[in-house]
Amino acid sequence: MADSIEEKSRTLAKGKGRFCCAGGCTNTNADGVSLHSFPSEKRPDIRRKWIKFIRDEQINFVSPTKYQFICERHFTKECYPKKYSILEALGKHDEIKRKDLNPDAVPTIHLKPKRYLHTAREKNLPLSLGGDGRCDTPGHSAKFCSYTMLDVNLMVVADIQLVQSNEVKSSSHMEKEGLIRAVKEFQENGLAIGELVTDRHPQITKFVREEMPNTKHYFDVWHVAKGSKAFVELEKIAANTRIKKDIRKLSPGPQTAALEGYHSILNHFAPKMIGFSYEGMLSRLLLAALHFNENMQRPQACTREGAKRFSIIFPKAKGGHYSLKEVKEPSYVETLKDEMTRLAINGEGKRKDIQMPMAPPPLSASYFHPVKEDAINNFQSRFKLLP
Ligand SMILES: [Zn+2]
């Protein structure tokens, strides 16, 4: 079988040979792309730029080993002599054996932000997602609602949408709007949603039923059980007809409990009692998601002898009995602190220009804005009436 041979040679090449060391990329010669070697020490300026490109994502990277290269996917067309685009335009791909770069070319294209997409597309299966909304204030006058989609197989926060209340009819429509935007995002990236687990939000149930015919909709057990002192009171639950209907829709496998976990992390990054601007809120959502994804993928730590490490904890719910908890490898936080210190000492800590999506106008934009002088006069004349 041609496929399995190709697969095998690729694995071999990846284990031993040259490979692309850019974040999220594992290309080798066997992948049919050109690999470019780092500029030599004789050209320190260009070499430094190449190393910085890798360091943008892997802050511990110092200099390349003899196996580490950067593949052509990280260079723009302008980095190559024109003859290649001409040959490609003529369909003469075969005549390009190996691409050579222009002498001052620098890699600029990072693949990492798309890493989830790559994995999801490679699997080529409809996704199983858990979705949940979180409003910034308890009650009805929320300014923001963020909608989070968690890929329950990969345990990755796959998408986040932020809705501001003046973008929709009323703040009670924010959660559904968040879901609609998230679903659109998946569709536009060519990803099908096979299963969606959410809480029992009536607007969302209706939307999935009517607009997402190819998606199986399940209710999260966690949410259905919530407020009912869990399954001990199952009898009571079963007596309720609405819930009886919902039980048929209970998620059979993946639960969205991890989403609850994400939301409690979010409470640290964006406490509900503090008001944030749209950009501020969005940045905090993204940071919380990065943190969550990084932690979920953190491997369990091992002892020097190679045994998995555990710690013993005494959870409240277990009333004096213990549980075992996996000890994870150290997180990125220490590395991040070191890097911040290094940047501050070297005076490199300049903010890069970050591209933010267009923020909706602030809530006060639609209110009546008086001339300040009039407002002050009005205020003062009211006080004069007082004895
Ligand atoms: Zn690459």
UniProtKB/TrEMBL annotation:
Any single Pfam family the record assigns to this protein: THAP
Domain THAP-type stretches: 16-110
Annotated coiled-coil positions are none
Q: Does the keyword DNA-binding apply?
A: yes
- Superkingdom of source: Eukaryota
Alphabetized, the UniProt keywords read: DNA-binding, Metal-binding, Zinc, Zinc-finger
For this UniProt entry, the molecular function terms from Gene Ontology, in alphabetical order, are: DNA binding; zinc ion binding
Check the record and name the PANTHER family matching this protein: PROTEIN CBG10204, SI:CH211-108C17.2-RELATED-RELATED
Q: What is this protein called?
A: THAP-type domain-containing protein
* Source species: Pinctada imbricata
